[in-house]
Amino acid sequence: MLIPGVTALLSFMYSRNILRFSVSSNLRNSCWQSFNMMPPLDVLSDLPKSVIDEVLMRLSLQDAVRTSILSKKWRYNWCTLPQLKLDQTLWKTTKDLTCFTSNFTKIIYHVLTLHEGPITQFTLSIPHLEGCPNFDNLIYFLSRNGIQHLVLELQGGNLYTLPSSFFTCSQMRHLSLKNCLIRPPPVFKGFERLISLKLNRVTISSELLGSLISHSPLLENLVLQYSDISNPVEISAPKLRSFVFIEAEHDLAKIFESIPAIEHLCWNLQYVKARNAGPVEFIPTRLLSAFNCLKRLYVSWICLREFFELSIALCLIRSSPYLEEIEIETCDTEGGKYYEPVPCGVVDEIPASFSDMTFNYLRTVKLRHVTGIGPEMQLIKVLLAKSPALLRMVIDPEVGEDKKSLKVLAEITKFQRASSKAEVVYNVD
């Protein structure tokens, strides 16, 4: 018998590129040929289970559950999906949010009671999570069913304290947490199979974070955003490839000394300003261990008028001889107040501090919100003079600096270029 609604579902799958990319061309053609034959066949139900799972996982959980009404064969297909996602699509209206707790409880009850088999990936990203008593049970359920990829993005309210069962997820490979409190039992050391870790507005001690990272020997991707970490963190991650960092951290040597394989580094200094953190006494000219694998460096919310922040930028660039891309987004402090303005002598010495360096692999440079101050111009001069493979430098001036832009551009055009192919794009409106 033809499944009720199969035409609409099959058309939907094809229009959304679900069937198109989920199965091979031969199998796809066979499906359509069989579907057009008389008498009509139960084409979808005859697909391999892996294909059906792939189709359902491309739908929202709500739509996946709705396929249970198609036929008896489809009634429990969603119950064996290895990947589940609960997000804002389940609470689209104000009425849905009003009944949030009861609706959430019902959904979790159905997952806990009807799902069979492993759940390797689970995503929870919803507006509110207060007064939901079954959530700890959900974490326990996931810990017993082979969870490998867990995303908990809680949007507000009090921090959610992770239960003890969370720390028994021995198969964890990808972990993303938002608005959570991490207080592990004493026996917990880390997740030995962890590859990627993202913490956003998470409260955790610096000692525990350092231990968690150091006990994750396979860690390749790390993101730390706006988390409550009171002291500098010592990061030991020999295989770390990508590091996105939005924190108030001043001890460069301590945080960067044990990540030799880093290839992509993104540091946003906005949180430093938000915490009203003052300068440190000393920033090294270069790190003791150079970033010999670093290819992409992105620094944002950095004020090059401040001695501390300028020193950070110069230190990172000097410590990265194999860079291919540099992007720096500058800003200014509110009201023009600086903890320690850059001394004139320091600005004049910037070119000399790069005298023994050549950036043989640097191809693109982007500088945003440029105002033409001394540190900016000296950095531009150095990068043009020391980059024989440079292809393109893009400079975006600060809004409202139109009159000054022409003078800045005229000065830049006089700078020596090591690369005959280097193109300088100055975006004047």
> Outline, from the CA principal axes?
elongated
Q: Which strand-content bin applies to the residues?
A: 15-25%
Helix content: 25-40%
The residue ranges in which pLDDT falls below 50 over 5 or more consecutive positions are: 1-8, 18-24, 37-41
Round the mean pLDDT to the nearest integer and report it: 81
Cα Rg:
27 Å
Distance between the termini: 65 Å
Description:
The protein has 429 residues and is of the alpha/beta class. The chain contains 16 helices and 15 strands. The protein has helices at residues 6-15, 18-22, 25-36, 49-57, 61-66, 94-98, 100-114, 135-143, 206-214, 252-256, 270-274, 307-318, 344-348, 350-353, 374-385, 402-412; strands at 83-86, 121-126, 149-154, 160-161, 174-178, 180-181, 196-200, 221-225, 242-246, 264-268, 296-302, 325-330, 364-370, 392-397, 423-426. The strands form 2 sheets. Strands 1-2-3-5-7-8-9-10-11-12-13-14-15 form a 13-stranded parallel β-sheet. The model is unreliable at 1-8, 18-24 and 37-41 (pLDDT under 50).
Task: Give the SSE layout.
Layout: H1 6-15, H2 18-22, H3 25-36, H4 49-57, H5 61-66, E1 83-86, H6 94-98, H7 100-114, E2 121-126, H8 135-143, E3 149-154, E4 160-161, E5 174-178, E6 180-181, E7 196-200, H9 206-214, E8 221-225, E9 242-246, H10 252-256, E10 264-268, H11 270-274, E11 296-302, H12 307-318, E12 325-330, H13 344-348, H14 350-353, E13 364-370, H15 374-385, E14 392-397, H16 402-412, E15 423-426
Parallel strand pairs: 1-2, 2-3, 3-5, 4-6, 5-7, 7-8, 8-9, 9-10, 10-11, 11-12, 12-13, 13-14, 14-15
